């Protein structure tokens, strides 16, 4: 059932009905441009989107896949549901347009809803192109299980779930363009073995020439990704039960795979327009005002449309189209025209900087062609000049001259006589001075269509810090490659008025206090609920994004003495389990140190059978995860298990992983199992700014991976233990820093509590220790926590003791739920993929 986001508007003024089919980046950007031109006074705006969300930034999905961002990040959701209500836009999300009657001027949706329009904008975007391959689809036309595109949140969620399901997943990415390499990079950071298969002879052949492709290939292979070019995939190989097992090639060879990601290109989504009788070639044919051919009130914008025989797959042309269309239909400039886009690309591909524009190489005998090629350093540069005009440029690795070349490509600056100086600082503008010399209409942020002039205007309107400018213009909120230049332009435009962004040190944006200041204010004023904090400390009132970090902080300060309010907690924290993409939950009972018993194993098996739990999986933290538990069954599952929570959810102390230690291992130097159990017993479930993963290993062979945990302990002999902090082995790889070497398990436990409490009180919301430790500095941490230079250890010890004494197993909520709806079924109204039974 679709979600209806309808504003309440009592205005009686007759307005024209504007319907936008498509709630993606092009459709929503067009509506933003219309509203900025007074469109809310002219139109009742209705949008139809087939995904159950507001408008989100598809460019950010690669960051989500790699673990550099999450689906909760503000930068991902461009227009959350509240935006539509606040701007008087009716949104039917989770619904899809099934038919257009051009003569009756109606749109019919899959839900049966019929919507009248006076003006219609089609912004249906594009779909992943799936080449014709044997075994790609099931008999009913659905993609085979384990085959994904890479276009939506659902695609990304599916890949993440499969990538983290076990430790030995292999993936093949079909297509070595930008999207394919981003998918490969993201999966590799999740620990997946990845091969990229590309039928052309070199990677990113649409943007790079053969030498540029070779340099990029070297960089990709250095990441541990296999690259296979000149290979045409003809089949998806599957086992007898339908499970993906690999891909087959035209030459008879094959590659094994558990997951296949198809990024072989996109195709304009034109079926709705075709069925309506609109003119279709490669895309929906439009004129210079984005009006569909032979139509008076139907327009198209974005990747679905074809303008002057061109279709575009980059966002910059979409923004230009949106501006023209908004000018036309609002009357702001009824003569506005779109004349096509000269494409320049500046982005980061799998961590490698790339800039490209125009042609890839010389096309005539008299074309000038200058190249710099250094495979060892991963640098490639080239320019193509014709009739003293730059008609093409390519930079890979070092893109410091991209700003100058962009202006030269747009014929805004003359070319130097020494063409080589276009690639190096030899008389042309340097990277350092490029911000001042850029023309105002040069696009700085390709992802969100922000020009230098937009940034300068933003500064002139009163925004004098980089974060303010980024928030208002969205510059730097896509791939992120433009952030340094955005900073340079803000500094240039603001001059002496440039302000340091004090809010960067605030715990939450709506309260102008650092975390220690906020803790002090909450204690002094005895504020025990999120609403009280907003009322007393937030100058502009409530901010929804601050609720979760504030509720976490209140639990750190007051323990069970904080006042819980509806809506202040994420669903995981409300029901003490980890929500899955199908709306069910995973339950991980406590197994301290990874040690269990036959009785516990029997209980887990019995519970899984009783509640028809589809999957039991061993986790990376040496626990057993019961996946697919219904929300309403959670209290009964916990009761039947009779085991405490294992904390595989929320931002808290998670688990302590251990090796065998001296119990059985012939190399063991210390009793790691007993120490791990003691640490977990003492600090179980402590609230923290981000999750905490710990490990204790009985010798330097590091079988429990203690070197790369938030808090790791290693036995080194003679009763001594090394304590390492700030390690990571997820999306970021980092060996922990040595905090101290101690002589007893008791001292390990004491220092563990001191470190955790300092982290709880000083770290930013969602700041993992692998960022916190380098930010503070290991030497500073040693001085504060080990040497007690500032006399803080006594207070830290007292507060951690209070927190430990205040511990209550959250699964006891089964006896007295916090609210009538706490464990009421709340599965999504939309059908979502179920956890597979294996």
Overview of this structure, please?
The protein is α/β, with parallel strands linked by helices. Helices cover 29% and strands 22% of the residues. The chain contains 25 helices and 41 strands. The longest helix has 18 residues, at 745-762. The two termini are 29 Å apart. Pfam families: Fer2_BFD, NIR_SIR, NIR_SIR_ferr, Pyr_redox_2, Rubredoxin_C.
Index terms:
22% strand, 838 residues, 5-stranded parallel beta sheet, globular, alpha/beta, single chain, 6-stranded mixed beta sheet, 29% helix
Summarize the structure.
With 838 residues, the chain is an alpha/beta fold. It contains 25 helices and 41 strands.
Mean of residue pLDDT?
88
Distance between the termini: 29 Å
* Rough outline: globular
Helix content: 25-40%
Q: Indicate the structural class.
A: alpha/beta
Tell me the strand percentage band: 15-25%
**Biggest sheet: strand arrangement:** 1-6-3-2-10-22
Family: Belongs to the nitrite and sulfite reductase 4Fe-4S domain family.
Domain Nitrite/sulphite reductase 4Fe-4S: 650-787
Domain BFD-like [2Fe-2S]-binding: 444-490
GO biological process, one term: nitrate assimilation
């Amino acid at each position: 059932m679709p979600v209806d986001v309808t504003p309440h508007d009592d205005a009686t003024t007759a307005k024209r009905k504007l319907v936008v089919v498509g709630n993606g980046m092009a459709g929503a950007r067009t509506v933003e441009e219309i509203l900025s031109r007074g469109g809310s006074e002219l139109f009742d705006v209705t949008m139809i989107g087939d995904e159950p969300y507001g408008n989100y930034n598809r460019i950010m999905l690669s960051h989500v896949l790699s673990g550099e961002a999450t689906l909760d990040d503000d930068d991902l959701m461009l227009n959350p549901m509240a935006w539509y209500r606040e701007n008087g836009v009716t949104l039917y999300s989770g619904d899809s347009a099934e038919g257009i009657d051009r003569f009756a001027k109606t749109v019919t949706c899959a839900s049966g809803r019929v919507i009248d329009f006076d003006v219609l904008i089609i912004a249906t975007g594009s779909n992943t192109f799936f080449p014709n391959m044997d075994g790609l689809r099931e008999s009913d036309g659905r993609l085979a299980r384990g085959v994904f595109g890479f276009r939506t949140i659902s695609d990304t969620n599916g890949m993440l779930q499969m990538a983290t399901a076990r430790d030995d997943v292999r993936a093949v990415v079909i297509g070595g363009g930008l999207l394919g390499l981003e998918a490969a990079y993201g999966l590799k950071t999740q620990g997946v073995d990845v091969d990229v298969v590309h039928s052309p002879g070199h990677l990113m052949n649409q943007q790079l020439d053969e030498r540029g492709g070779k340099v990029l290939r070297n960089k990709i292979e250095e990441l541990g990704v296999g690259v296979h070019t000149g290979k045409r995939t003809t089949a998806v190989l599957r086992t007898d039960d339908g499970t993906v097992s690999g891909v087959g090639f035209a030459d008879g060879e094959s590659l094994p795979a558990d997951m296949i990601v198809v990024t072989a290109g996109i195709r304009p989504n034109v079926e709705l327009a075709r069925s309506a009788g609109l003119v279709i070639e490669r895309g929906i044919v439009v004129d210079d005002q984005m009006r569909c051919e032979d139509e008076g009130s139907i327009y198209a914008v974005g990747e679905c449309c074809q303008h002057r025989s061109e279709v575009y797959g980059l966002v910059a042309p979409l923004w230009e189209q949106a501006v023209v269309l908004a000018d036309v239909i609002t009357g702001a400039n009824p003569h506005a025209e779109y004349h096509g886009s000269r494409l320049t690309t500046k982005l980061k591909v799998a961590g490698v900087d790339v800039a490209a524009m125009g042609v890839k190489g010389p096309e005539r005998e008299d074309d000038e062609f200058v190249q710099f090629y250094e495979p060892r350093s991963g640098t490639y540069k080239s320019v193509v000049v014709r009739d003293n005009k730059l008609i093409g440029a390519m930079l890979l690795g070092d893109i410091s001259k991209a700003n100058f070349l962009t202006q030269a490509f747009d014929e805004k600056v003359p070319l130097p006589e020494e063409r080589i100086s276009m690639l190096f600082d030899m008389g042309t503008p340097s990277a350092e001075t490029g911000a001042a010399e850029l023309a105002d209409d040069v696009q700085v942020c390709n992802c969100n269509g922000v020009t230098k002039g937009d940034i300068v205007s933003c500064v002139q309107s009163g925004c004098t810090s980089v974060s303010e400018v980024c928030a208002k213009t969205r510059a730097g909120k896509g791939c992120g490659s433009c952030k340094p230049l955005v900073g340079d332009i803000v500094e240039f435009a603001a001059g002496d008025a440039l302000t340091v962004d004090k809010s960067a040190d605030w715990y939450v944006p709506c309260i102008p206090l650092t975390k220690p200041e906020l803790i002090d204010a909450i204690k002094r004023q005895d504020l025990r609920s999120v609403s009280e904090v907003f009322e007393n400390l937030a100058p502009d009132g409530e901010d929804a994004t601050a609720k979760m970090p504030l509720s976490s902080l209140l639990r750190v300060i007051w323990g069970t003495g904080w006042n819980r309010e509806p809506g202040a907690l994420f669903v995981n924290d409300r029901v003490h389990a980890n929500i899955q993409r199908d709306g069910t939950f995973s339950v991980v009972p406590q197994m301290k140190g990874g040690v269990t018993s036959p009785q516990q194993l029997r209980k887990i098996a019995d519970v899984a059978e009783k509640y028809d739990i589809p999957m039991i999986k061993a986790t990376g933290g040496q626990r057993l995860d019961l996946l697919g538990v219904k929300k309403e069954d959670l209290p009964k599952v916990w009761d039947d298990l009779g085991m405490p929570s294992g904390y595989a959810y929320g931002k808290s102390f998670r688990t302590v992983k251990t090796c065998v230690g001296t119990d059985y291992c012939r190399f063991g130097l210390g009793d790691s199992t007993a120490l791990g159990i003691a640490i977990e017993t003492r600090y179980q479930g402590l609230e923290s700014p981000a999750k905490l993963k710990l490990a204790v290993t009985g010798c330097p062979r590091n079988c429990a991976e203690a070197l790369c945990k938030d808090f790791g302990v290693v036995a080194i002999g003679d009763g001594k233990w090394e304590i390492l902090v700030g390690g990571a082995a997820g999306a970021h790889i980092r060996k922990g820093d040595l905090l101290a070497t101690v002589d007893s398990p008791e001292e390990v436990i004491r220092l563990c509590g001191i470190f955790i409490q300092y982290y709880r009180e000083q770290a930013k919301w969602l700041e993992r220790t692998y960022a916190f430790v380098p930010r503070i500095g290991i030497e500073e941490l040693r001085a504060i926590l080990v040497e007690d230079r500032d006399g803080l250890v006594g207070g830290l010890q007292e507060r951690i003791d209070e927190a430990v004494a205040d511990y209550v197993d959250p699964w006891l909520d089964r006896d007295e739920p916090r609210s009538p709806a706490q464990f009421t079924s709340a599965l999504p109204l939309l059908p979502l993929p179920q956890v597979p039974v294996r």
